[in-house]
Design goal:
InterPro entries: NB-ARC, P-loop_NTPase, TPR-like_helical_dom_sf, TPR_rpt. By secondary structure, the protein is mainly alpha-helical. It is built from 39 helices and 9 strands. The two termini are about 60 Å apart.
């Protein structure tokens, strides 16, 4: 659809339709009476007697003088009649702006609103359409008015109230214009807004008139212009940037951006269907850059339509640069930036500051506490400010306590922050406060999840205390809800005064890496911090960021990059207790996964020593768990079980649910290898439940994988198949090495269950992955892919065929689910 802020000011008539003069004389003859008496008659009487609609009455005798007022003075509110005065001529105004020729989209909304207008008993007296500038409020209202005008045979009134500009229309002046349009003579129009509103309501009684109040400022401006209870068949359409929740019985419509298909259709209508279809992908890039805002799409399409030598891809490239985008969205006297400036110019100083600073925050939205940190205000004051911005459509609040900008509005808010005279200092202070909030709160989550882990004591101090959580679940819920916003904050804070805190934030938010929830985002921001710290010569921050990056790589099966980053971290700052312990622990896991057992034992011994030197009990338990799996992988099952149980005992004493799950998981692996299968089943099942409750899908998948191994060893192939299928369904988070192992154990379980065809299909998929990963193919895979391969009995050792995956598979962390 078209969403043009100027739409209501482009065209519109304020008089009768062009056919009225043709029928004026015929109507006077048919009435057979002095036309001066006609205005005193009711509309129904005129229609019944003449056979003509009463909309022709005003033109019966244009030269005939109006009947003078019945009193020498203008009427007052106390003596206004309920019916129109005798010198009020009954007319049929037709003031709607021209219909929007290229209106498109909004089909469901238009249908629902038309249904609301169709039945008098069900419709509201007013429909209030609100939304940000350029969203298409006027276009929707004008289109709706034209589609419904046949339901309002007594006419349509229209006015642009100028609510988005510096000088909104005075309701008293508007009432005077409306009364004249309804046939009231100047002499009969009283002074004062109350008197005029009373006469206006009297003129609308028993009539069916549609009133379109465009671009309203607020409810106070609108109220005097609403028909009264005596005009139940009149309806008012209101458009405004303000959400008029205080307007009483008005039906609210919160207009949102267009859908991608609607945006394409609007663009294609302007530039031509063929031209748009040829470069459909580029058109979708353009409308995405316009954030599906109708005004922006119209401007972009108009620019392209006027430049026949441009391709859509040229326009797409121009709009790809966020810093130039608003400047590019200009065509003639239409500009997206100018539309936003109208709203910004009406903000008070506190609102304007909040609008500017909130535009600096990254992520899809922002929580109320985070917004308070940006603004340096308490939650109550922040809530009042943000609500006021929501009310005027400069912010959106899709769910309670969270706020977001329309994408183009965010760009404008950021531009406002950058052009202020003290912008640099103001921006730095706001982002520093936000970083403090995220670091302090993430550290609380980390500490709650890892009791006994002293890493948080080595993080940079903050000026914000952080949020408090009553339960571990509430803490993790916050971390995952804020993940996008938290990670988006990091690249904005790599300057001299904030860089160390960004490196520490990566460590505090390690659960995002371990869960597999945000691997790409986490990698991108960690690399950004590494690069910034390296350029600045900040070895401490670079070491911590590389340690965090290596931590992530080990989770996603990228052991080469993981080893490189972890070694570099130790080289940069091996004296840092955080790096010395954590990087060594991770390198031990990586070396064990790569089959370099002696090296793994050396690194894990260093990690155990560093954790103990720092009195870090949670870290000590992690190192013991990793040593356990090293012993198990080397066939030292008894000591492997003992080490796992030592680690589990520490986790039990500390009382951390997720770490307890790690410990149980490790013990379950060791017990499976010791063929203590029922004990292993209990530990692994409990670990699975805890992983699921903690929203750790990667660990959940690994627990299913270990349970499949255990059931195979216990000669329960059906149960093994069920768990292996679950591990495969969750295995996408762990990379191709884990998928290879999941496919292998599923194939063995299917073969043991007698499902040879499915088993061979799994083996083939595993073979493709094995070749892609560049490792030799186990002999068992070749045998099972051959047509003469024998069925595997349920007693078959579950480990051949993917045993070697433990030697080359991706290392994990904490209590590593791979080795």
């Amino acid at each position: 659809m078209a969403g043009d802020e100027r739409l209501g000011r482009q065209e519109g008539s304020t008089g009768s339709g062009p056919d009225r003069c043709r029928h004026g004389e015929e109507a006077s003859l048919a009435l057979g009476e002095d036309p001066d008496s006609a205005p005193g008659r009711t509309r129904l009487e005129l229609e019944l007697e003449s056979g003509y609609r009463a909309n022709v009455v005003r033109e019966l005798r244009p030269h005939a003088p109006l009947r003078p007022a019945t009193a020498l003075s203008r009427p007052s509110a106390s003596n206004l009649p309920r019916r129109p005065l005798a010198d009020t001529t009954v007319v049929r105004p037709a003031q709607l702006p021209a219909a929007v020729a290229d209106f498109t989209g909004r089909e469901d909304l238009v249908r629902k609103l038309n249904e609301r207008l169709a039945v008098s008993a069900d419709r509201s007296a007013a429909i209030a359409i609100a939304g940000v500038g350029g969203i298409g409020k006027t276009a929707l209202a004008v289109h709706l008015a034209h589609t419904a005008r046949h339901r309002f045979p007594d006419g349509q009134l229209y006015v642009d109230l100028g609510g988005s500009g510096p000088s909104p229309a005075d309701p008293e002046t508007v009432l005077g214009a409306f009364l004249r349009s309804l046939g009231t003579s100047d002499a009969a129009i009283p002074d004062g807004i109350e008197e005029r509103a009373a006469l206006y309501r009297a003129c609308l009684e028993d009539r069916r008139i549609l009133v379109l109040l465009d671009n309203a400022c607020d409810a106070a401006q609108v109220r005097p212009l609403l028909p009264g209870d005596g005009a139940p068949d009149c309806v008012t359409l209101i458009t405004s940037r303000t959400h008029m929740s205080d307007l009483g019985h008005a039906h609210p419509v919160d207009l949102d951006a267009m859908s991608p298909p609607e945006a394409f259709d609007l663009f294609a209508q302007i530039v031509g269907q063929e031209r748009a279809t040829v470069e459909r992908a580029e058109v979708m890039d353009v409308v995405a850059s316009c954030s599906y805002l109708p005004l922006a799409i119209r401007i972009a399409a108009s620019r392209l339509a006027s430049r026949r030598t441009w391709t859509v891809s040229v326009l797409a490239r121009k709009l790809a640069d966020e810093r130039r985008r608003l400047d590019e969205l200009r065509a003639g006297d239409l500009a997206v930036k100018a539309t936003f400036e109208l709203g910004y110019g009406q903000l008070d100083p506190a609102q304007a500051r909040a609008f500017r600073l909130l535009g600096l925050a990254g992520g899809p939205d922002i929580s109320l506490p985070a917004a308070g940190a940006v603004l340096g205000l308490d939650v109550a004051e922040t809530g009042r400010l943000l609500t006021s911005l929501v009310d005027i459509s400069l912010l959106e609040s899709a769910v309670p306590g969270r706020y977001r900008f329309h994408d183009l509005v965010r760009l404008y808010a950021r531009a406002c922050a950058e052009r202020e005279w003290r912008a640099a200092a103001e921006r730095e202070e706001a982002l520093s406060r936000l970083l403090d909030f995220y670091l302090a709160t993430a550290a609380r989550v980390y500490a709650l999840e890892r009791p006994g882990d002293r890493m948080v004591e080595h993080l940079e101090p903050t000026g914000h205390p952080g949020l408090l959580f009553e339960t571990s679940k509430a803490a993790l819920d916050w971390l995952f809800a804020e993940a996008d916003c938290l990670l988006a904050c990091v690249p904005k804070c790599t300057g001299e005064s904030t860089r160390r805190r960004t490196g520490d934030l990566l460590l505090g938010a390690l659960d995002l890496a371990e869960s597999g929830a945000r691997p790409r985002q986490y990698e991108t921001v960690a690399q950004t911090v590494c690069d910034a710290a390296h350029t600045a010569g900040d070895s401490r921050t670079e070491a911590r960021a590389r340690s965090a990056l290596g931590h992530l790589y080990s989770f996603t099966g990228r052991y080469g990059p993981a080893e490189r980053e972890l070694r570099r971290a130790l080289e940069l700052d091996g004296d840092d207790p955080v790096v010395a312990s954590r990087a060594s622990n991770q390198l031990g896991i990586v070396a064990n996964g790569l089959g370099r057992h002696e090296e793994a034992e050396r690194y894990l011994g260093q990690a155990l020593e560093a954790f103990r030197a720092d009195a870090n009990e949670a870290g000590e338990a992690s190192a013991l768990a990793n040593l356990s799996r090293l012993h198990v992988s080397r066939g030292r099952i008894r000591t492997g079980v003992e080490l796992a149980e030592q680690g589990l005992a520490i986790y039990r004493r500390l009382g951390a649910p997720l770490r307890l799950a790690n410990g149980m998981y490790t013990v379950g692996i060791a017990l499976t290898r010791a063929h203590r299968l029922e004990e292993a089943s209990g530990h692994l099942t409990e670990a699975l439940d805890l992983f699921r409750e903690a929203r750790q899908p990667l660990w959940e998948g690994m627990a299913h994988f270990r349970l499949a191994e255990m059931h195979l060893a216990a000669q329960r192939p059906s149960e093994a198949v069920a768990h292996a299928e679950q591990s495969l369904a969750l295995g996408g988070l762990g990379g191709e090495w884990r998928r290879f192992s999941f496919l292998t154990v599923l194939a063995k379980a299917l073969m043991a269950a007698g499902q040879r065809t499915r088993a061979q299909d799994c083996w083939r998929q595993a073979q493709v992955l094995r070749e892609r990963l560049g490792s030799p193919e186990p002999e068992e895979v070749r045998q099972l892919l051959s047509t003469s391969a024998p069925d595997l009995s349920a007693a078959t050792d579950p480990y051949p065929g993917h045993r070697h995956a433990y030697g080359v598979g991706p290392p994990m962390t904490e209590s590593d689910p791979w080795t």
